[in-house]
Design brief:
single chain; 272 residues; alpha+beta; Jelly Rolls; 7-stranded antiparallel β-sheet; 4-stranded antiparallel β-sheet; globular; binds 2-oxoglutaric acid
């Protein structure tokens, strides 16, 4: 019998997805059209000297969409007009989420789980290489950060394995210290929670392998995807706003993204 393990606040199961579940998820993914967002926008411009570059990777959000240019959800102060109501989880993911929530309640103490917590948000991250000026530039990494949504965060990975690190900051100008690292395998589940892994430490994806030859095909120009990661989080429903209720300037900033999403999604067509 498999015995998923980890220190308090960290859970890892290298074989969470069955082959059938992986196939279901991959089938759903094949119809998805992720988008390239830019970091800044007309009403939320880049600071002086900072370029308004696209994110390192195409993304897709479910449950609610946190557009990069509006600023990510960050309680206690940065919570309003950042989480825009988005498509619900498809059946292939909803069934996994129910299993993950059970694991969370079994695995972590109640003090790690805020009242009302349930996984209602998912960021789908594509990792791979971008074709720039005719050359493939590897973009398969994420810099150190914390996920500010309250409570446990669950991450399901498919494709090439990724080197995921928890790091402690040693202040400006000093390299962070790696406290714990884990290769996230194809079909794996990682959950992190609590004062150490969720609140104190930062996390990052240092690199993604190329060895197994996994590839995913998306209608995204100039990007070759070899890993897909689903990061499930909780945003209190009171902080989720429909697109139609966004203040005018916010709506203007994300209009082009919503129009792109609407080309492939009845939900987003309805939101326009
Ligand atoms: O791809 C991963 O494993 C982690 C992604 C991540 O850190 C995030 O979405 O915040």
């Amino acid at each position: 019998m498999r015995r998923p393990s980890g220190p308090p606040g960290l859970y890892y199961d290298p074989q969470f997805l069955t082959r059938a579940e992986r196939s279901e998820v991959t089938r759903w993914l094949s119809k998805l059209r992720p988008i390239w967002e830019k970091r800044f926008s007309k009403h939320h411009p880049a600071p002086e000297g900072v370029a308004n570059r696209p994110l390192l990777r195409p993304v897709y959000w479910l449950g609610n969409w946190q557009f990069a240019c509006l600023g990510y959800y960050h309680p206690p102060r940065k919570t309003q007009n950042r989480c825009v109501a988005a498509e619900p989880f498809p059946p292939a993911l909803a069934v996994l989420v129910r299993r993950v929530e059970k694991i969370v309640h079994r695995q972590f103490p109640p003090s790690y789980i805020p009242r009302g917590w349930h996984l209602n948000t998912c960021l789908v991250n594509l990792y791979g290489g971008r074709i720039q000026d005719g050359k493939m530039v590897d973009n398969a990494r994420v810099g150190e950060h914390k996920d500010a949504e309250p409570g446990p965060v669950a991450s399901i990975s498919i494709g090439e394995r990724a080197l995921f690190q928890f790091v402690a900051s040693r202040g400006k100008g000093h390299a962070s210290q790696v406290v714990m690292q884990q290769w996230l395998d194809d079909c794996s589940l990682q959950i992190f929670a609590g004062p150490q892994f969720k609140d104190r430490l930062f996390h990052r994806v240092q690199r993604v392998d190329k060895k197994a030859g996994h590839r995913f095909v998306f209608p995204v120009d100039g990007f070759e995807t070899r890993r897909v990661n689903f990061t499930f989080r909780y945003v209190p429903p009171k902080d989720i706003v429909p697109f139609s209720k966004l203040p005018k300037e916010h709506a203007e900033d994300v209009q082009e993204y919503v129009e792109a999403l609407a080309e492939n999604s009845p939900f987003w067509r309805g939101a326009l």
